[in-house]
Amino acid sequence: MEGWVKIYRSILDWEWFGDSKMVHFYIYCLCKASFKDCKWRGIEIKRGQFLTSLDAMVVETKLSKQTLRTCIARLKSTQEITHKTTHTYTLITISNYDDYQMQKDECNTAINTEVNTQLTHHQHTINTHNKNIRSKEDKNKREKENIPPIVPPKETETETALTTFEEFWNAYHRITSLNKTDREAASKYWHRLSQVEQRRARDNIQPYYNSLNDVKWCKKARTYLSDKNFNDEFTLQTNKLGIAL
Hints:
Mean pLDDT: 81
Distance between the termini: 109 Å
Helix content: 40-55%
Largest sheet: 3 strands, antiparallel
Number of strands: 5
Number of helices: 10
Structural class: mainly alpha
Radius of gyration: 42 Å
Shape: rod-shaped
Strand content: 5-15%
Strand order of the largest sheet: 3-5-4
């Protein structure tokens, strides 16, 4: 006899698995069952069935007749098999044979589906892992450079926010005469401010600049925003004659 049969690992949970004779007999039935419909001496044999006799099974399994009768009765009680006996033969049918022994095309389809599912899941896991690594690297880079996280403005506020920042940016450097550097960082700090703070930051550029003892201590725009110097109480600097500088 050629070919092969499949034994699922779930057989370990089978209620008869602890009885070695039951396992012996059930595997014997799987191996004996026809894998396709056929006929033998005018008797129609369906896929999952086989013709035998008690005497033949004694010879082939090396089990006693009483043991075979017990195994058959147990498998029938749990609906693992059905059997029909005549004066010349016994026809044993394995219940749900197709669930355990799929045909080649069905088996290939099932295997390919399982493999594709595993590959898709594996690729998704890799993509998620790489995305997490990139996010972590970006976060570490931003923390190292002391740049706050990007908080994009709401879509409805984008145009207004950008215009307001441009006004602040130009006004700050016009008043302080500093070089325009760190624009991106300054923009990010700007967008973290409330609308009230943004107006105050813009309106207090001149008071802040006038309050400095020495203009060399004037902060860059990004630092002015991050430290929120626009909230300071400003003291107007004057010269010896009491004239505001």
